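Service request form, structural biology core

Requester: graduate student, group of Dr. S.
Request type: structure prediction, single chain
Budget code: on file
Notes: please return the result as structure tokens.

Sequence provided:
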Amino acid sequence: MVVRPRYNPGEPLDDRQARLGWGFDTDQVPDGSTITQPWTDGGRDGQNPVTLKINLSPGFDMEDLASPSHAVTIVEQDRGAEITLTDSDVPADQDFILRWKPRANKAPQIGMFSEKTKLGEHRLLMLIPPTTLRAVEAAPRELVIVLDKPGSMGGQAIRQAKSAVRRAIMRLKDDDTFNIVAFDNASQPLFSTSKPVTDRTIDAALDFVANIEAGGGTEMSSALAHALANAPIGEPGSDEAQPAMKQIIFCH
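Core staff response, request fulfilled:
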């Protein structure tokens, strides 16, 4: 529910204007100063009042339905719920977050979502595993984490993102490979290509994550290009095929 300051890519056309902050003209956005939204004061009267009502019907039973950001009133319905703000309206000074998860069952569950538009019919199938699964040996994987670190990620957001990256790194297995690509207005890969899991590469990754600070803009194309660059070796099914499963995780 929050409109953050607009980021305009490119080099500022006027150094004096650039020192004023967001919304300056650049060589890529020459009218940047004229398309940036105005600021309001911090008082309640200066904020847009928002009312909210959600009819949540996922198609299967839910649990742990709650909002960590706002006080809400929840009325349970048949395999769903109606969620409203406890206060009749709230200022639009933070995003609204609603969290829930499917209720676990001993048998697998299936949820089907369908929507018809002028472009056709779209469907989403969700498969929910049972509460107990037979342990299987996971195949080796190549994990590439793309970490978003612009100025808008400052404070608690970047701390949580870095914590998630550290946890993912420490859960890698000996036969995995991995890489980290951080980006703001430019991409900063940890390695040129994914590296095997060793004490040395793990230490390098932890040092890399520790030194990351939020700042700059948001231009993800080069980071995604780097993450997608390393194609598997050989053709599928051949002796030269890369056995590892590649996973790319976008961390924001």
